[in-house]
Amino acid sequence: MKTFRCRCRGxxxxxxxxxxxxxxxxEEPVAPADLLPKEQMIRLLADLHVLEARTENSRLPxxxxxxxxxxxxxxxxxxxxxxxxxxxxxxxxxxxxxxDLGDIYGAVIDTLTLRAQRAPTPPAxxxxxxxxxxxxxxxxxxQAK
Length: 145
Hints:
By secondary structure, the protein is mostly helical. It contains six helices and no strands. The chain is globular and about 55 Å long.
């Protein structure tokens, strides 16, 4: 009876091990044809993070702020002549290559730090700067409701 259990375990374990080996990640994923260069990804990600911070601090309701962010994100990608799908595919590709995405975000942090240092500092006691929203922000807020 004991040998029967061992044989069953062996029969069940072999396919499981073969399946687990087949599920491994491929050696090198294929780069998409429209892969954005790292420098362009750095600029886009820095701009998108600034846009996100502006919309979060806009004091709009959450759904309106999200609608505004998505609209402005579309406009930013359009100005950069990048499709949303090309950006997503590039981000996923660099994400699979953890070191590449780490290098990109290191450069994004450096870029944002440099931008913050170059920004004029308000005088002491001055009210915080207002967030520059597009003219259609109120229309977007009404659409979101």
